Amino acid sequence: MSPPSELRAFPKGKKGLAPVGGKVKPKGSEHMPLYEHVFLARQDVTAQQVEELTTRFKGVIEANGGSVGKTEYWGVKSLTYRINKNRKAHFTLLNIDAPAAAVQELERQQRIDEDVLRILTLRVEEHEDGPSAMLQKRDRDDRGERGERGDRGDRGDRFGGREDRPRRPRPTEEVQAEEEN
What we know:
By secondary structure, this protein is an alpha+beta fold. It contains 4 helices and 4 strands. The chain has a domain of 91 residues: Ribosomal protein S6/Translation elongation factor EF1B (Alpha-Beta Plaits, 2-Layer Sandwich). The protein is elongated.
């Protein structure tokens, strides 16, 4: 004997549950999800080849019903650790407004491509206006050497006058061996 339909967790005859509040949004009224996508290309490809890769990946997104808002080429940067014997890589950011299927297809094609070392896709609430944090960091790094900004002022020398004194002699290997015994 089965319980009455009112007591069932999923009553028969309903094709899904209404969200809390009972309002159902019509299909197509929502915006597509927003993503920030970064890919790393091998260090031995040229910047022009990276641009061609970026154009090809934009085409994948647009062919699957999405759009790419902003692209940023961050340049060749050193990696923290080697990836497939590469110590450096070309970094590129894409701001994507696309359905999940388009992003999955993009990632699938990038995994197949030998020139792409690593990918990272993050879903975001909104895209940042203006340059990304990496480009702002590069602008900050372009300030120049410290000498252009002046000396240390009234803070004194870095070593506090110690650089003129001779260094204390280091113990020789014989003295170290006697200390160990």
